[in-house]
Amino acid sequence: MTRKIIHVDMDAFFASVEQRDAPELRGRPVAVGGSSGRGVVAAASYEARRFGVRSAMPSARAIRQCPELVFVRPRFDVYRQVSQQIRAIFHAYTPLVEPLSLDEAYLDVTENLAGLPSATETALEIRRRIKEETGLTASAGISYNKFLAKLASDANKPDGQFVIPPGAGEAFVGGLEVGRFHGIGPRTAEKMARLGIRTGADLRAKELPWLRAHFGKSGEWYHRVARGQDDRAVTPDRVRKSSGSETTYATNLITPEAVEDGIRAMADDVWEWCERTHSSGRTVTAKIRFADFRTLTRSRSLADPVGDRETLHAIAVELVRGLYPLPMGVRLLGVTLSNLGPLPDPATPGVQMALDLAR
């Protein structure tokens, strides 16, 4: 049976929530994030995007590009509540919902609970209900596999939808630049360009052995998607493998004290997730990117999941201290917890041992 897959992607989600809740922001360029010298844009409204403002852009640069930009501090608790509303709508149509983030998800509506005859009608109704119940707009891509559905959801944004029907996937992919493919980042796209691959048609012209030789295991994936092929199922029970947080700084950090403050802040973000989900992890990874874009990671695995915020702080800071003296300024820091499991009881033997290991 040919699958019917919908990829729903909320339009400028964080910024749209802020404009919904503060009418004075509607129609104005809005950025969610910090406006200080080291702030970074977490999300931008469509009005801001017209000036070239994008997520992950340093706030100082965003203000230069759009002097009228209005900064709003993020309210993640509100975004999560709205996301839960939207997912409840999804589940009224199918149990096969695979969230990718707070603002996007795959739905398999091959057999939908509403009995609608087509995925196109199902997507229209879902988008209508999202607008009625949350006041926000969503875009949707409809196709016979996940890869094509995600591409399609970008084709008619904002507040639109696009269908790639069976038999049309290969031609659609062939006309796109490979940089638009999910899973092909800027560096891979640059490498492909050096090898003469700029479009899906260029990629399709390469034989599988050649792709394996130049891209390793990813070569097989590129060979399939260049032909519009993707056999991945929508998996609602995806197990989360890690939780992390990272920040790019507008002004490079040049002292160990500033780096350690930044690492603790990233660890705080991760620990908030741990407390919210009653989860933790056995492996702590610290990430540091220098001014020349050289990136290093350091990890430590423990016998038991990290048991408290202070332990996570201590281990993450100890990991970055192993990189001193700093060869140059630092532009990005991150902390990740992996090998996840239940959050241990603070009285459990082994939790204090984790702290001792970091000294």
UniProtKB/TrEMBL annotation:
GO terms for cellular component: cytosol. Its cofactor is Mg(2+). This is DNA polymerase IV. It is an enzyme of class 2 (transferase). One of its GO terms (molecular function) is damaged DNA binding. It catalyses: DNA(n) + a 2'-deoxyribonucleoside 5'-triphosphate = DNA(n+1) + diphosphate. Pfam families: IMS, IMS_C. The record marks F14 as: Substrate discrimination. Binds 2 magnesium ions per subunit. Its EC number is 2.7.7.7. Gene3D superfamilies: 3.30.70.270, 3.40.1170.60, 5' to 3' exonuclease, C-terminal subdomain, DNA polymerase, Y-family, little finger domain. Keywords: Cytoplasm, DNA damage, DNA repair, DNA replication, DNA-binding, DNA-directed DNA polymerase, Magnesium, Metal-binding, Mutator protein, Nucleotidyltransferase, Transferase. The active site is at E104. Mg(2+) binds at D9, D103. PROSITE patterns: UMUC. HAMAP family: DNApol_IV (MF_01113). It is found in: Cytoplasm. Monomer. The keyword Transport does not apply. Belongs to the DNA polymerase type-Y family. InterPro entries: DNA/RNA_pol_sf, DNA_pol_Y-fam_lit_finger_sf, DNA_pol_Y-fam_little_finger, DNA_polymerase-Y, DNApol_IV, Rev_trsase/Diguanyl_cyclase, UmuC.
